[in-house]
Amino acid sequence: MESVKSQSYEVFLNELGEAALNQHVAKHGYSKIFVLVDENTRKFCLPQFQKMFEHSIDDIFEIASGEENKHIQTCLKVWEFLSNEDGDRKSLLINLGGGVLTDLGGFVASTFKRGIHFINIPTTLLSMVDASIGGKTGVDLGALKNQIGVINQPQMVLVFPEFLETLEPRQVTSGFAEMLKHGLIKEQEYWEQLKTKEDFKDASSIQKSIAIKNDVVTQDPTEKGIRKILNYGHTLGHAIESYCLENYDKRTLLHGEAIAIGMILEGYLSHELTGLSKLALDDIKQTFLKHFEKVEFDENDIDSILKLLKYDKKNSHGDINFVLLQSIGIAVTDIKVPENLFEKAFAYYKE
User: Which of 130, 135, 282, 347 could form an S-S bond across to 178 if both were Cys, CB 3.0 to 4.6 Å?
Assistant: First the structure.
């Protein structure tokens, strides 16, 4: 299976990844090699990684898993670890984990000694098809998603689908939401293919999603234009994710679970504002509700979620900008939404 080439790095799948990793490390002669893990990837993925890695690892650092640990205090621990272990500008950090870990690890590497090399080895479906691709790194500010960070590309991304066998089904389904998004914003045929899938873990679909995201990111690395379409479902989805994270009476949602709700809501806004047909809207809703359990929101919940929209990273000059769909496979950016439509969108979701 061929690699996916970006402007400054490649994404390698399966055995190509193992060979590329070992060749890269041999070529660069790093002074120190560190591996960042969480308690899950240390147990389930690190042993397999160590078997394929032909070079010595200087040290391994474990952080706690979960979005609630994706903050600057965790970064401080990793920076202090790298410093205490004599990390220098010729060190390499290998991030072995899901989206939280690759986001945080990439940010740590990008800022330690003003920047050291890092390699992402995503271990969840979400991180394979989305989080580890494109160079976005960063952490949350309180419950507000990804407020602190930089765009900086890894040396390479290595995807080993066998790591997905270590995940509970809920985690795999969460990643599937981003794959469905890729079809919605860029390729209707891919959306139609994914809708009927029962197994989301096949390498060909993973490669297809990586290729779609990579194509968008390569055209617009710093999100000045087309890259914004990757945020479809994320404006309301991130607000929902943040709200559920900071309210103990709400079940904490995985990223994909929150984004799935966001895509239904923003699908409704698309129907009202940018021409998405009612047939396509209902198709989007039915497809996501087939895989994701509906979450109940009362009026107070909705008010609180809408207040969080002002923190969205796509906002400019006080305006909240949305990515909406003209049709399945065609997205448009920088759409301003009248406030009266938000409650109607939630009402459609509840129906």
Answer: 130
